[in-house]
Amino acid sequence: MIKIKNLLFALSIATPLMAQSNPDSLIEVIRKNAKDSIILNKIFEKLAPTKEYKDSIYDKVVIEFIKSSASYGWAKGVAKGNDLAGNRYYVRGNFSKAQEYFESIINFSQKTKVPVAIIANAYKMLSGILFNTGNAEGAIEKANNAIALFQQVNDTLGLAKTINLLGGIYWNLGKLEIASEKLYQALKLREKLGDSLGVAHAYNNIGLIYDTQGKQNEALDMYYKALSIYQKLKNDLGVGRASNNIAIILKNQKRFTESLDMFLKSYEVDVKNNNIDDQGKTLSNIGQLYLEIGNPKEAINYFFKAKSAFEQSKNENGLAAVFLNLGRAYEQVGNYSTSAIFYINALEIASKLKSIEWQRDAHKGMYSILKRQGNYKKAIEHLEEYKTLSDTLSNISNLNNLDKLKIEYETDKKESEIVLLQKDNELKQLDIKRQKVINFLLLSLVLFSLAIVVLSYLYLKKLKKDKRLLQEMNAEILIQKEEIETQRDMLEININELNQHKTELALQTDQIETQNRLLEYANRRITEGLEYASLIQRSLLSNPVELEKYFSKQAMLYKPKDFVGGDIYWHHEFDNEIIFVIADCIGHGVAGAFMSIMAINALKDAVTIFNLNKPSQIATHLYNELIKNSAKPFGSNLLLGIDFMVCKYTKQAEVIEYSGYKISFEYFDSENNHKTIRPQRNLNRQIGLIEFNDEYLDITKRGKLFFYTDGYHDQISDTKRIKLGKSEYIKLLGNTLGKPVDEQVKHLESFLEKWKGNYEQVDDILVLGIDI
Question: Is residue 223 domain-resident?
Answer without folding.
Answer: no
